[in-house]
Amino acid sequence: MYPNAFDYYRAASVPDAIALLQEHPDAKLIAGGHSLLPMMKLRLVSPPALIDLGGIPGLASIREEADAIVIGAGTTYDDLINSDIINETLPIIAEAASVVGDLQVRNRGTIGGSLAHADPASDMPAVMLALGATIKAVGPGGERTIPADDFFVEFFTTALQPDEVLTEISVPRPKAGTGMAYEKFAQPASGYAIVGVAAVIGRNSDGKAESVRVAITGAGPVVRHAQATEDALRGTVPDADSIKQASQQATEGMEFMGDIHASEEYRAHLTRVFTERALTKAVQRSGG
């Protein structure tokens, strides 16, 4: 199926993109297009105009700051996979990017597009939530920062305003003793997560988990923390038994989706299993 007719605009800068959004309030922003264009071909969405961000200088970048790694919204999955900075400092990002879709998607898809699209089965929202990232948005009133904890609102919905552009993501540098891992059960044809779990654990010199962040994607209508699991492990010296017990609590307070790929009950089961796998790997990588 072909998409409905639409107008096409190529933004030369972020201010230009914002001006185009104000001129065409029903337009959609497009970066790599690997999420939006398939939906347009199926006519699930039919925007009257597309505003292409691909020509904006500086949006595809990875830089180091004193306390953070800053990733431009136009950075592709392939860029993340092959970045020395990412692999050395935030390997969970490269790990998750390497299991996104297929080669074509990884070459074209962008981290900013993934976050702004907020597909409930995509990988990067869970990773950014687990890392405690902050998202920068620029609009007519200037720029603002949005914690990842507040960014993903509901099904395909974020805290971005209609006339804002997501420009970069800032991820805190992990402290010594931090381990991180991403594990997912993928839908074979698309590569989307039926359930995906991102886990980041920071431990002190005594081996106790000072910080625990676990995020679940694919299971429900929006990515979310496994709060009960985080609370159960925080302040403990995690071992196989405590990880297993904490993982059993990952489904508490969760809303699960059922579809042709997996029932609600199966997604709940996968959530517990993959939470245990991600936590086990994260603890091992933290030096445990």
UniProtKB/TrEMBL annotation:
Enzyme class, broadest EC rank: oxidoreductase
Keywords annotated in UniProt: FAD, Flavoprotein, Oxidoreductase
The keyword Flavoprotein is annotated on this UniProt entry: yes
Top-level taxon: Bacteria
Transmembrane segments: none
A Pfam family annotated for this UniProt entry: CO_deh_flav_C
GO molecular function annotations of the record: FAD binding; oxidoreductase activity
Enzyme Commission code: 1.2.99.2
Keyword set includes Lyase: no
Domain FAD-binding PCMH-type, residue spans: 1-176
Matches recorded under InterPro entries: CO_DH_flav_C, CO_DH_flav_C_dom_sf, Diverse_Substr_Oxidored, FAD-bd_PCMH, FAD-bd_PCMH-like_sf, FAD-bd_PCMH_sub1, FAD-bd_PCMH_sub2, Mopterin_DH_FAD-bd
PROSITE patterns the UniProt entry points to: FAD_PCMH
Protein name, entry field: Carbon monoxide dehydrogenase, medium subunit
Organism: Nitrolancea hollandica Lb
Source taxonomy: Bacteria, Pseudomonadati, Thermomicrobiota, Thermomicrobia, Sphaerobacterales
Name of the coding gene: coxM
